[in-house]
């Protein structure tokens, strides 16, 4: 997702104001107000982005049928304008009641003091995938709920794997052997596609770091130069050194899907959206040529969790109605209906019991992977730190830079940026 950055002065001012309501440890000292019982009433203003923004108004009719004295007013916001629109609304104290918020934005907006802490009576934390719930938590307090989720799996050509005499890899060692065999015996030019740096490459790399036991931060201190992080980056680099992964970003070129379909590329790591893309572009019968598998294991088999959260603002004019709408959207049956309407995967675990998800082998694998998936720390400065990580990954993948030197650079520059908390 694209974003526009806050002006430094305006953002600093908001942080300073927010600090007035926090104790010396940075924790919000406000007591979460309860939400009234009974049906929702009044106007509820909602901002949502992308397809969700286009579809939510019609979908909310069911909520209004259940709550006849409430009216949901949805404003569709383009993703490339969303960050600045929310930031400006916070600064002007002209926020909607509730908004969809990208998971990597939660730390930044929570730090302004503008988000309402999640009332324990509204939703059950245990109902959600833990990795998804963690995207809402800043300094130990939740400021929203996960709305929908995605994670990453290994996509691979089953026919090429059969020709190469290999099965889906379950470990790091097997991943290397798998990619090598797909290239040398399966007929592919590239055994596995990994993003060679550039914007967003941290999402491709961090699952390997997490699976190796690496952490990104401890309290207000970064831990990006740990031995676990360095070892994971060296493993990631090996696919480029051994010419198993292409040195250019196939996704940026728009060539990833066609390379996979024509057999030039044997495998790649991506999210659930690629199922539909491959079925559409591959034509009749291609769905039988590929499969998905969980991330390979080292200490764990952890993947990345993404998606979007829902947050209610402290300046909401209809706080009760907003939280009741969020609670409704979090019901398992509503999450399944939303999946069927839009294709967004449920953040609530019970939603995955529905046959439309559990009965599909590919989607069921995504559901299993969501049980072991993480997000980066919810800190205000994450996107600045992520840009540093992206740059160092590119040096390692494209220029053969030393992984230890790269992780030290990540650590030094990230420490200079700080966590903003």
From TrEMBL:
Coiled coil: none
A cellular component annotation (GO) from this entry: ATP-binding cassette (ABC) transporter complex, substrate-binding subunit-containing
Biological process, per Gene Ontology: maltodextrin transmembrane transport; maltose transport
Keywords of the record: Signal, Transport
Cross-referenced PROSITE patterns: PROKAR_LIPOPROTEIN
Keyword Transport in annotation: yes
Cross-referenced InterPro entries: SBP
Signal sequence residues: 1-18
Annotated region (Disordered), positions in chain: 399-421
Gene Ontology molecular-function annotations: maltose binding
Family: Belongs to the bacterial solute-binding protein 1 family.
Protein name: Sugar ABC transporter substrate-binding protein
Organism: Phytohabitans rumicis
């Amino acid at each position: 997702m694209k974003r526009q950055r806050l002006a430094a002065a305006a953002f600093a001012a908001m942080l300073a104001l927010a600090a007035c309501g926090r104790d010396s440890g940075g924790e919000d000292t406000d007591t979460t107000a309860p939400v009234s019982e009974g049906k929702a009433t009044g106007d509820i203003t909602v901002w949502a982005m992308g397809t969700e923004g286009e579809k939510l108004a019609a979908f909310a009719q069911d909520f209004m049928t259940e709550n006849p004295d409430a009216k949901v007013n949805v404003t569709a916001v383009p993703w490339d304008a969303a960050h600045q629109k929310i930031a400006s609304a916070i600064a002007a104290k002209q926020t909607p009641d509730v908004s969809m918020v990208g998971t990597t934005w939660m730390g930044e907006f929570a730090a302004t003091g503008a988000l309402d802490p999640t009332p324990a009576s509204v939703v059950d934390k245990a109902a959600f995938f833990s990795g998804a719930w963690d995207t809402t938590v800043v300094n130990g307090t939740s400021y929203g709920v996960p709305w929908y989720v995605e994670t990453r799996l290994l996509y691979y050509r089953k026919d090429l794997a059969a020709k190469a005499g290999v099965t889906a890899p379950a470990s790091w060692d097997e991943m290397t052997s798998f990619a090598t065999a797909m290239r040398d015996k399966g007929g592919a030019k590239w055994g596995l596609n990994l993003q060679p740096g550039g914007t967003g490459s941290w999402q491709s790399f961090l699952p390997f770091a997490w699976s190796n036991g690496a952490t990104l931060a401890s309290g207000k201190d970064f831990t990006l130069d740990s031995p676990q992080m360095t070892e994971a980056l060296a493993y990631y680099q090996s696919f480029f050194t051994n010419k198993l992964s292409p040195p250019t970003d196939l996704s940026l070129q728009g060539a990833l899907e066609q390379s996979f379909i024509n057999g030039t590329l044997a495998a790649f790591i991506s999210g659930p959206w690629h199922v539909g893309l491959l079925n559409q572009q591959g034509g009749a019968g291609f769905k039988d040529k590929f499969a998905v598998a969980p991330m390979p294991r080292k200490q764990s088999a952890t993947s990345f969790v993404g998606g979007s959260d829902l947050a209610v603002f402290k300046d909401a004019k209809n706080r009760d109605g907003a939280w009741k709408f969020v609670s409704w959207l979090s019901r398992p049956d509503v999450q399944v209906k939303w999946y069927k309407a839009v294709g967004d995967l449920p953040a609530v675990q019970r939603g995955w019991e529905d046959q439309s998800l559990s009965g599909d082998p590919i989607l069921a694998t995504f559901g299993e992977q969501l049980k072991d998936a993480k997000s980066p720390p919810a800190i205000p400065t994450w996107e600045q730190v992520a840009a540093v990580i992206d740059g160092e990954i590119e040096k390692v993948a494209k220029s053969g830079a030393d992984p230890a030197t790269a992780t030290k650079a990540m650590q030094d520059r990230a420490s200079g940026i700080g966590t903003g908390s």
